[in-house]
Protein backbone atom coordinates (compact mmCIF):
# COMPACT_ATOMS: atom_id res chain seq x y z
CA UNK A 1 0.00 0.00 0.00
CA UNK A 2 1.48 3.35 -1.02
CA UNK A 3 1.41 6.34 1.29
CA UNK A 4 -0.94 8.96 -0.09
CA UNK A 5 -2.43 12.22 1.07
CA UNK A 6 -5.77 10.76 0.00
CA UNK A 7 -5.67 8.59 3.13
CA UNK A 8 -6.12 11.68 5.29
CA UNK A 9 -8.22 13.90 3.03
CA UNK A 10 -11.16 11.78 2.05
CA UNK A 11 -14.85 12.05 2.76
CA UNK A 12 -14.41 9.11 5.11
CA UNK A 13 -11.79 11.00 7.11
CA UNK A 14 -14.11 13.99 7.34
CA UNK A 15 -16.89 11.73 8.65
CA UNK A 16 -14.62 10.29 11.33
CA UNK A 17 -13.33 13.73 12.35
CA UNK A 18 -16.85 15.16 12.58
CA UNK A 19 -18.08 12.30 14.76
CA UNK A 20 -15.12 12.57 17.13
CA UNK A 21 -15.51 16.36 17.37
CA UNK A 22 -19.19 15.98 18.23
CA UNK A 23 -18.73 13.17 20.74
CA UNK A 24 -15.48 13.89 22.58
CA UNK A 25 -17.39 16.47 24.57
CA UNK A 26 -19.29 16.66 27.83
CA UNK A 27 -18.51 13.73 30.09
CA UNK A 28 -15.96 12.40 27.56
CA UNK A 29 -14.01 15.63 27.06
CA UNK A 30 -11.71 14.94 30.02
CA UNK A 31 -10.65 11.61 28.49
CA UNK A 32 -8.54 13.11 25.70
CA UNK A 33 -5.04 11.65 25.83
CA UNK A 34 -5.84 9.32 28.74
CA UNK A 35 -4.93 5.67 29.09
CA UNK A 36 -2.58 3.50 27.08
CA UNK A 37 0.46 1.41 28.07
CA UNK A 38 1.77 2.51 31.45
CA UNK A 39 -1.38 4.55 32.10
CA UNK A 40 -4.16 1.96 31.80
CA UNK A 41 -5.32 2.90 35.31
CA UNK A 42 -6.39 6.36 34.14
CA UNK A 43 -10.18 6.84 33.99
CA UNK A 44 -10.73 3.15 33.28
CA UNK A 45 -14.49 3.08 33.93
CA UNK A 46 -15.01 6.27 31.92
CA UNK A 47 -12.95 4.90 29.03
CA UNK A 48 -15.00 1.70 29.15
CA UNK A 49 -18.13 3.84 28.83
CA UNK A 50 -16.50 5.65 25.88
CA UNK A 51 -15.76 2.33 24.16
CA UNK A 52 -19.38 1.31 24.55
CA UNK A 53 -20.44 4.68 23.17
CA UNK A 54 -18.25 3.99 20.12
CA UNK A 55 -19.91 0.59 19.78
CA UNK A 56 -23.42 2.05 19.83
CA UNK A 57 -22.41 4.32 16.95
CA UNK A 58 -20.81 1.48 14.98
CA UNK A 59 -17.18 2.58 15.43
CA UNK A 60 -15.82 -0.60 16.99
CA UNK A 61 -14.50 -3.53 14.94
CA UNK A 62 -14.80 -1.51 11.74
CA UNK A 63 -12.58 -3.90 9.78
CA UNK A 64 -14.66 -6.96 10.62
CA UNK A 65 -17.03 -8.30 7.94
CA UNK A 66 -20.55 -6.92 8.23
CA UNK A 67 -22.00 -10.38 9.00
CA UNK A 68 -20.04 -10.30 12.26
CA UNK A 69 -21.10 -6.81 13.26
CA UNK A 70 -18.32 -4.83 11.60
CA UNK A 71 -18.39 -2.21 8.88
CA UNK A 72 -16.35 -4.22 6.39
CA UNK A 73 -14.02 -1.22 6.18
CA UNK A 74 -11.32 -1.26 3.53
CA UNK A 75 -7.66 -1.11 4.51
CA UNK A 76 -7.55 2.60 3.59
CA UNK A 77 -10.61 3.30 5.71
CA UNK A 78 -9.13 1.46 8.67
CA UNK A 79 -5.87 3.41 8.34
CA UNK A 80 -7.86 6.64 8.12
CA UNK A 81 -9.95 5.82 11.20
CA UNK A 82 -6.95 5.03 13.40
CA UNK A 83 -5.09 8.09 12.13
CA UNK A 84 -8.00 10.46 12.80
CA UNK A 85 -8.67 8.84 16.17
CA UNK A 86 -5.09 9.49 17.23
CA UNK A 87 -5.07 13.04 15.85
CA UNK A 88 -8.14 13.80 17.97
CA UNK A 89 -6.18 12.64 21.04
CA UNK A 90 -9.06 10.29 21.78
CA UNK A 91 -8.60 8.01 24.81
CA UNK A 92 -6.83 4.67 24.60
CA UNK A 93 -9.25 1.83 24.03
CA UNK A 94 -9.85 -0.73 26.78
CA UNK A 95 -10.89 -3.49 24.36
CA UNK A 96 -7.79 -3.74 22.15
CA UNK A 97 -7.10 -7.42 22.95
CA UNK A 98 -10.62 -8.44 22.04
CA UNK A 99 -11.22 -6.20 19.06
CA UNK A 100 -7.83 -6.23 17.35
CA UNK A 101 -6.50 -9.68 18.35
CA UNK A 102 -9.05 -12.27 19.42
CA UNK A 103 -11.90 -11.11 17.18
CA UNK A 104 -9.96 -11.42 13.89
CA UNK A 105 -8.51 -14.73 15.14
CA UNK A 106 -11.97 -16.17 15.77
CA UNK A 107 -13.13 -14.96 12.37
CA UNK A 108 -10.16 -16.71 10.75
CA UNK A 109 -9.96 -19.91 12.83
CA UNK A 110 -13.05 -20.22 15.04
CA UNK A 111 -16.19 -22.27 14.61
CA UNK A 112 -19.49 -20.61 13.75
CA UNK A 113 -20.70 -21.37 17.28
CA UNK A 114 -17.66 -19.63 18.77
CA UNK A 115 -18.18 -16.61 16.53
CA UNK A 116 -21.85 -16.33 17.49
CA UNK A 117 -21.03 -16.68 21.18
CA UNK A 118 -18.08 -14.29 21.50
CA UNK A 119 -17.97 -11.75 18.66
CA UNK A 120 -21.06 -9.76 19.77
CA UNK A 121 -19.62 -9.28 23.28
CA UNK A 122 -16.35 -8.04 21.83
CA UNK A 123 -18.05 -5.69 19.40
CA UNK A 124 -20.39 -4.28 22.09
CA UNK A 125 -17.58 -4.16 24.70
CA UNK A 126 -19.60 -6.17 27.19
CA UNK A 127 -16.88 -8.83 27.61
CA UNK A 128 -13.20 -7.92 28.00
CA UNK A 129 -10.31 -10.25 27.20
CA UNK A 130 -6.78 -10.93 28.46
CA UNK A 131 -3.97 -12.76 26.66
CA UNK A 132 -2.61 -15.88 28.40
CA UNK A 133 0.67 -16.46 26.57
CA UNK A 134 3.75 -15.62 28.68
CA UNK A 135 4.82 -17.78 31.61
CA UNK A 136 7.63 -17.49 34.18
CA UNK A 137 9.69 -19.94 32.10
CA UNK A 138 8.30 -18.93 28.73
CA UNK A 139 8.27 -15.16 28.47
CA UNK A 140 9.08 -14.45 24.85
CA UNK A 141 9.65 -18.12 24.02
CA UNK A 142 6.05 -19.22 23.56
CA UNK A 143 7.07 -22.72 22.46
CA UNK A 144 8.33 -23.37 26.01
CA UNK A 145 4.82 -23.17 27.52
CA UNK A 146 4.27 -25.59 30.41
CA UNK A 147 0.67 -24.76 31.45
CA UNK A 148 -1.31 -27.95 30.83
CA UNK A 149 -4.89 -28.80 29.97
CA UNK A 150 -6.48 -32.25 29.86
CA UNK A 151 -9.88 -33.18 28.47
CA UNK A 152 -12.12 -34.79 31.05
CA UNK A 153 -15.92 -35.25 31.07
CA UNK A 154 -16.50 -32.60 28.41
CA UNK A 155 -14.24 -30.03 30.07
CA UNK A 156 -10.65 -28.87 29.71
CA UNK A 157 -8.97 -28.97 33.14
CA UNK A 158 -6.23 -26.32 33.21
CA UNK A 159 -3.23 -26.07 35.53
CA UNK A 160 -0.31 -23.67 35.40
CA UNK A 161 0.67 -20.03 35.62
CA UNK A 162 0.70 -17.10 33.21
CA UNK A 163 2.53 -13.82 33.84
CA UNK A 164 2.61 -10.26 32.46
CA UNK A 165 -1.07 -10.76 31.62
CA UNK A 166 -2.25 -7.27 30.67
CA UNK A 167 -5.58 -6.17 32.19
CA UNK A 168 -6.49 -9.64 33.49
CA UNK A 169 -7.81 -7.96 36.65
CA UNK A 170 -10.60 -6.29 34.66
CA UNK A 171 -11.21 -9.01 32.05
CA UNK A 172 -13.93 -11.66 32.09
CA UNK A 173 -12.15 -14.05 29.69
CA UNK A 174 -8.65 -15.01 28.57
CA UNK A 175 -7.36 -16.78 25.48
CA UNK A 176 -4.80 -19.23 26.82
CA UNK A 177 -2.07 -21.31 25.21
CA UNK A 178 -1.80 -24.63 27.04
CA UNK A 179 -0.04 -27.93 26.42
CA UNK A 180 -2.74 -30.53 25.78
CA UNK A 181 -0.59 -33.45 24.60
CA UNK A 182 1.43 -34.99 27.46
CA UNK A 183 5.10 -35.40 26.61
CA UNK A 184 4.98 -32.94 23.71
CA UNK A 185 7.68 -30.29 23.34
CA UNK A 186 8.21 -26.97 21.61
CA UNK A 187 5.52 -26.06 19.05
CA UNK A 188 3.77 -29.42 19.09
CA UNK A 189 0.89 -30.34 21.35
CA UNK A 190 -0.29 -26.81 22.18
CA UNK A 191 -3.94 -25.71 22.08
CA UNK A 192 -5.62 -22.29 22.01
CA UNK A 193 -8.33 -22.23 24.69
CA UNK A 194 -10.98 -19.67 25.64
CA UNK A 195 -11.15 -19.60 29.44
CA UNK A 196 -13.53 -17.75 31.81
CA UNK A 197 -11.61 -15.93 34.55
CA UNK A 198 -14.44 -15.58 37.04
CA UNK A 199 -14.26 -19.07 38.54
CA UNK A 200 -12.82 -20.67 41.71
CA UNK A 201 -9.86 -22.23 39.87
CA UNK A 202 -8.44 -18.89 38.68
CA UNK A 203 -6.43 -16.44 40.80
CA UNK A 204 -5.40 -13.07 39.36
CA UNK A 205 -2.60 -11.28 41.21
CA UNK A 206 -1.61 -7.75 40.04
CA UNK A 207 2.11 -7.04 39.63
CA UNK A 208 3.14 -3.61 40.86
CA UNK A 209 5.54 -1.89 38.46
CA UNK A 210 8.20 0.78 38.87
CA UNK A 211 5.59 3.33 37.85
CA UNK A 212 3.42 2.36 40.83
CA UNK A 213 0.66 1.03 38.55
CA UNK A 214 -0.46 -2.58 38.10
CA UNK A 215 -1.77 -3.24 34.60
CA UNK A 216 0.19 -6.51 34.37
CA UNK A 217 -0.82 -9.59 36.36
CA UNK A 218 0.08 -13.11 37.33
CA UNK A 219 -2.73 -15.59 36.63
CA UNK A 220 -2.80 -18.97 38.36
CA UNK A 221 -4.90 -21.89 37.07
CA UNK A 222 -5.63 -24.60 39.65
CA UNK A 223 -7.98 -27.13 38.05
CA UNK A 224 -9.68 -24.26 36.22
CA UNK A 225 -12.18 -25.42 33.62
CA UNK A 226 -13.54 -24.45 30.25
CA UNK A 227 -15.90 -26.27 27.89
CA UNK A 228 -14.47 -28.84 25.49
CA UNK A 229 -15.74 -26.90 22.47
CA UNK A 230 -13.88 -23.71 23.49
CA UNK A 231 -10.68 -24.69 21.72
CA UNK A 232 -9.96 -22.54 18.67
CA UNK A 233 -8.74 -24.66 15.78
CA UNK A 234 -7.99 -28.32 16.35
CA UNK A 235 -6.53 -29.54 19.67
CA UNK A 236 -2.76 -29.55 19.31
CA UNK A 237 -2.91 -26.87 16.60
CA UNK A 238 -2.51 -23.95 19.01
CA UNK A 239 0.84 -22.79 17.67
CA UNK A 240 -0.69 -22.07 14.25
CA UNK A 241 -3.58 -20.13 15.82
CA UNK A 242 -1.26 -18.23 18.19
CA UNK A 243 1.02 -17.18 15.34
CA UNK A 244 -2.01 -16.11 13.30
CA UNK A 245 -3.12 -13.90 16.19
CA UNK A 246 0.30 -12.26 16.43
CA UNK A 247 0.09 -11.14 12.79
CA UNK A 248 -3.09 -9.21 13.70
CA UNK A 249 -1.28 -7.62 16.67
CA UNK A 250 0.94 -5.53 14.38
CA UNK A 251 -1.98 -4.26 12.28
CA UNK A 252 -3.28 -0.88 11.17
CA UNK A 253 -3.75 0.38 14.74
CA UNK A 254 0.04 0.86 14.88
CA UNK A 255 -0.39 3.84 12.56
CA UNK A 256 -2.49 5.53 15.22
CA UNK A 257 0.15 4.58 17.77
CA UNK A 258 2.68 6.53 15.70
CA UNK A 259 0.54 9.67 15.90
CA UNK A 260 0.75 9.33 19.67
CA UNK A 261 4.52 8.89 19.41
CA UNK A 262 4.76 12.08 17.36
CA UNK A 263 2.78 13.94 20.01
CA UNK A 264 5.15 12.65 22.69
CA UNK A 265 8.15 13.75 20.65
CA UNK A 266 6.68 17.25 20.30
CA UNK A 267 6.31 17.29 24.08
CA UNK A 268 9.98 16.35 24.49
CA UNK A 269 10.95 19.21 22.20
CA UNK A 270 8.92 21.57 24.40
CA UNK A 271 10.73 20.17 27.45
CA UNK A 272 14.10 20.79 25.82
CA UNK A 273 13.11 24.32 24.88
CA UNK A 274 11.93 25.10 28.42
CA UNK A 275 15.05 23.68 30.04
CA UNK A 276 17.43 25.28 27.56
CA UNK A 277 18.82 21.91 26.48
CA UNK A 278 17.54 22.51 22.95
CA UNK A 279 20.67 24.63 22.47
CA UNK A 280 22.77 21.50 22.96
CA UNK A 281 23.80 20.13 19.51
CA UNK A 282 23.69 16.58 20.89
CA UNK A 283 20.05 16.97 21.97
CA UNK A 284 19.11 18.55 18.63
CA UNK A 285 20.72 15.66 16.76
CA UNK A 286 18.80 13.10 18.84
CA UNK A 287 15.54 14.93 18.19
CA UNK A 288 16.26 14.96 14.45
CA UNK A 289 17.03 11.23 14.52
CA UNK A 290 13.79 10.61 16.38
CA UNK A 291 11.80 12.43 13.70
CA UNK A 292 13.51 10.38 10.98
CA UNK A 293 12.72 7.22 12.95
CA UNK A 294 9.03 8.11 12.98
CA UNK A 295 9.02 8.47 9.21
CA UNK A 296 10.74 5.11 8.83
CA UNK A 297 8.12 3.48 11.08
CA UNK A 298 5.26 4.93 9.07
CA UNK A 299 6.78 3.98 5.72
CA UNK A 300 7.35 0.40 6.91
CA UNK A 301 3.82 0.11 8.31
CA UNK A 302 2.17 1.36 5.13
CA UNK A 303 4.37 -0.80 2.91
CA UNK A 304 3.63 -3.99 4.83
CA UNK A 305 -0.09 -3.64 5.68
CA UNK A 306 -1.77 -6.98 5.10
CA UNK A 307 1.58 -8.78 4.80
CA UNK A 308 1.48 -12.01 6.83
CA UNK A 309 5.26 -12.47 6.69
CA UNK A 310 6.38 -12.86 10.35
CA UNK A 311 9.63 -11.12 9.47
CA UNK A 312 7.80 -7.88 8.67
CA UNK A 313 5.98 -8.00 12.02
CA UNK A 314 9.30 -8.51 13.80
CA UNK A 315 10.89 -5.58 11.99
CA UNK A 316 7.94 -3.38 12.99
CA UNK A 317 8.25 -4.42 16.66
CA UNK A 318 11.99 -3.71 16.67
CA UNK A 319 11.44 -0.30 15.07
CA UNK A 320 8.79 1.04 17.44
CA UNK A 321 10.00 -0.60 20.67
CA UNK A 322 13.56 0.67 20.40
CA UNK A 323 12.41 4.09 19.18
CA UNK A 324 10.03 4.51 22.11
CA UNK A 325 12.59 3.33 24.66
CA UNK A 326 15.09 5.86 23.31
CA UNK A 327 12.44 8.60 23.49
CA UNK A 328 12.10 7.93 27.22
CA UNK A 329 15.85 8.43 27.60
CA UNK A 330 15.73 11.58 25.48
CA UNK A 331 12.94 12.99 27.67
CA UNK A 332 15.17 12.63 30.73
CA UNK A 333 18.14 14.21 28.94
CA UNK A 334 16.00 17.09 27.72
CA UNK A 335 14.95 17.89 31.29
CA UNK A 336 18.41 17.56 32.73
CA UNK A 337 18.73 17.33 36.51
CA UNK A 338 15.02 18.11 36.97
CA UNK A 339 14.22 14.63 35.63
CA UNK A 340 15.56 13.15 38.88
CA UNK A 341 13.15 15.06 41.10
CA UNK A 342 9.61 13.88 41.79
CA UNK A 343 6.62 16.08 42.63
CA UNK A 344 6.85 17.74 46.03
CA UNK A 345 3.74 16.15 47.51
CA UNK A 346 1.55 13.12 47.18
CA UNK A 347 -2.25 13.05 46.84
CA UNK A 348 -2.69 13.45 50.60
CA UNK A 349 -0.51 16.56 50.70
CA UNK A 350 2.39 14.83 52.45
CA UNK A 351 5.93 14.93 51.11
CA UNK A 352 6.57 12.34 48.42
CA UNK A 353 8.07 9.07 49.61
CA UNK A 354 9.77 7.51 46.61
CA UNK A 355 10.57 4.38 48.63
CA UNK A 356 6.88 3.54 48.96
CA UNK A 357 5.51 2.43 45.55
CA UNK A 358 1.90 2.69 46.71
CA UNK A 359 2.36 6.44 47.13
CA UNK A 360 4.87 7.02 44.35
CA UNK A 361 4.11 10.15 42.35
CA UNK A 362 5.72 10.43 38.93
CA UNK A 363 5.74 13.20 36.40
CA UNK A 364 4.48 12.27 32.92
CA UNK A 365 7.98 12.02 31.48
CA UNK A 366 9.33 9.99 34.37
CA UNK A 367 6.51 7.48 33.86
CA UNK A 368 7.34 7.37 30.14
CA UNK A 369 11.00 6.68 30.86
CA UNK A 370 10.29 3.92 33.37
CA UNK A 371 7.55 2.16 31.41
CA UNK A 372 9.41 2.18 28.10
CA UNK A 373 12.10 0.03 29.72
CA UNK A 374 9.59 -2.77 29.06
CA UNK A 375 8.89 -1.92 25.40
CA UNK A 376 11.74 -4.07 24.12
CA UNK A 377 10.60 -7.04 26.25
CA UNK A 378 6.81 -7.43 26.14
CA UNK A 379 5.14 -8.61 22.95
CA UNK A 380 8.30 -10.51 22.05
CA UNK A 381 11.73 -9.33 23.17
CA UNK A 382 14.33 -7.82 20.84
CA UNK A 383 16.26 -11.09 20.95
CA UNK A 384 13.25 -13.15 19.87
CA UNK A 385 12.38 -10.73 17.05
CA UNK A 386 15.93 -10.90 15.71
CA UNK A 387 15.84 -14.69 15.85
CA UNK A 388 12.61 -14.70 13.84
CA UNK A 389 14.20 -12.50 11.17
CA UNK A 390 17.42 -14.53 11.13
CA UNK A 391 15.86 -17.99 11.05
CA UNK A 392 12.56 -17.59 9.20
CA UNK A 393 13.45 -14.81 6.76
CA UNK A 394 17.20 -14.99 6.17
CA UNK A 395 17.42 -18.77 6.53
CA UNK A 396 20.34 -18.65 8.98
CA UNK A 397 21.08 -21.66 11.22
CA UNK A 398 18.69 -22.00 14.15
CA UNK A 399 19.83 -20.89 17.58
CA UNK A 400 20.97 -23.78 19.75
CA UNK A 401 18.30 -24.63 22.33
CA UNK A 402 18.51 -26.87 25.36
TrEMBL record:
<dbReference type="InterPro" id="IPR006091">
    <property type="entry name" value="Acyl-CoA_Oxase/DH_mid-dom"/>
</dbReference>
<protein>
    <submittedName>
        <fullName>Acyl-CoA dehydrogenase family protein</fullName>
    </submittedName>
</protein>
<dbReference type="Pfam" id="PF02770">
    <property type="entry name" value="Acyl-CoA_dh_M"/>
</dbReference>
<feature type="domain" description="Acyl-CoA dehydrogenase/oxidase C-terminal">
    <location>
        <begin position="236"/>
        <end position="394"/>
    </location>
</feature>
<comment type="similarity">
    <text>Belongs to the acyl-CoA dehydrogenase family.</text>
</comment>
<feature type="domain" description="Acyl-CoA dehydrogenase/oxidase N-terminal">
    <location>
        <begin position="9"/>
        <end position="122"/>
    </location>
</feature>
<dbReference type="InterPro" id="IPR009100">
    <property type="entry name" value="AcylCoA_DH/oxidase_NM_dom_sf"/>
</dbReference>
<keyword id="KW-0285">Flavoprotein</keyword>
<keyword id="KW-0560">Oxidoreductase</keyword>
<dbReference type="Pfam" id="PF02771">
    <property type="entry name" value="Acyl-CoA_dh_N"/>
</dbReference>
<keyword id="KW-0274">FAD</keyword>
<dbReference type="InterPro" id="IPR046373">
    <property type="entry name" value="Acyl-CoA_Oxase/DH_mid-dom_sf"/>
</dbReference>
<dbReference type="InterPro" id="IPR009075">
    <property type="entry name" value="AcylCo_DH/oxidase_C"/>
</dbReference>
<dbReference type="InterPro" id="IPR013786">
    <property type="entry name" value="AcylCoA_DH/ox_N"/>
</dbReference>
<feature type="domain" description="Acyl-CoA oxidase/dehydrogenase middle">
    <location>
        <begin position="130"/>
        <end position="223"/>
    </location>
</feature>
<dbReference type="InterPro" id="IPR037069">
    <property type="entry name" value="AcylCoA_DH/ox_N_sf"/>
</dbReference>
<dbReference type="InterPro" id="IPR036250">
    <property type="entry name" value="AcylCo_DH-like_C"/>
</dbReference>
<dbReference type="InterPro" id="IPR052161">
    <property type="entry name" value="Mycobact_Acyl-CoA_DH"/>
</dbReference>
<dbReference type="Pfam" id="PF00441">
    <property type="entry name" value="Acyl-CoA_dh_1"/>
</dbReference>
